[in-house]
Amino acid sequence: MPADPAANPRFGLTGFATDGSTSLAPLDADARCRLDSAVELLSGLRLAVLTGAGLSTDSGIPDYRGPSSPPRNPMTYQQFVGDEALRRRYWARNHVGWRHLRHADPNPGHAAVARLEQRGLITGLITQNVDRLHSTAGSVNVIDLHGTYDRVVCLNCRTPFRRAEIAELLEKLNPGYLEREADAGDVAPDADADVDDTADFVIAPCPVCGGMLKPDFVYFGENVPKDRVTEAYRMVDEAGALLVAGSSLTVMSGLRFVRHAHKAGKPVVIINRGATRGDDLATLLIDAGVSESLTYLAERLPALEN
Ligand SMILES: [Zn+2]
């Protein structure tokens, strides 16, 4: 089946968001040359794709590990469950920040990955991003390795909730808070808005059991659920190569898949602005714009023979 970005009504024929909010910068000669090598290397192989925060920067979500990002110290799981003041602060900032992710649109990089899947060129997609933009762009076989911003879970009874439902509870408990803090400047990829006035924020208890609620993503100091990791390894095992896009591979949760593919003798192509922790294991490194590079690849990778 030929690539048909128009199959997804969010995007025009070029793969640009139809509202024109995103445009692609030209690739330089070196990047094009490397991408042509990638096309040669990856032709005829089904790919597993691993993506990170560098893919969503073109959707207006800053990469807190990017070269120009302010230093941040994300809260650990232990801090969240062990310290009520920190938990209050976390929920207040998340209450403002999650809306930012909700209103973000996928960019041409997300669209390119969705087209690769529609053409049967990938075994699946593992993303470290919690923004769900791959799913919004039309990707189907997606593993949200670190969870998603739009779910909340009770740590006591494990009941899952939609973030929107908890938002209603929080608004009732904190009338006027959003209006006061709505213009918070920076919002990190984990929905952490830059809000300081958090001391009086009232946290919502679990509507079912009164237990402690937590946004359903993986914190620092917390492990990715085992079945999710197994499923991701399976995607890599089924693939002939691994394509990494927009991840510096700083955390082991992503790097292990690069090690796994490398150990199995499969080509690893990394597209990222700046160095990554997986550079030594890569067959080919492409230090260029992620959306631009994925669009370039999606346009040139040939159909599989069978
Ligand atoms: Zn509960």
From TrEMBL:
Q: Name the job this protein performs.
A: NAD-dependent protein deacetylase which modulates the activities of several enzymes which are inactive in their acetylated form.
What PANTHER family does the annotation carry? Answer: NAD-DEPENDENT PROTEIN DEACYLASE SIRTUIN-5, MITOCHONDRIAL-RELATED (PTHR11085)
Q: For NAD(+), which residues are the binding ones?
A: 52-72, 128-131, 246-248, 272-274, 290
- Which lineage do the record's taxonomy fields give for this organism? Bacteria, Bacillati, Actinomycetota, Actinomycetes, Micrococcales
Domain Deacetylase sirtuin-type residues, every copy? 17-304
Q: How is the cofactor bound?
A: Binds 1 zinc ion per subunit.
Protein's UniProt name = NAD-dependent protein deacetylase
Q: What is its EC number?
A: 2.3.1.286
Question: Species name for this entry?
Answer: Arthrobacter crusticola
Cofactor(s) required, per the database record: Zn(2+)
| Predominant cellular place of this UniProt entry's protein | cytoplasm
One annotated Gene Ontology cellular component of this protein: cytoplasm
Its annotated compartments are: Cytoplasm
Encoding gene per record? cobB
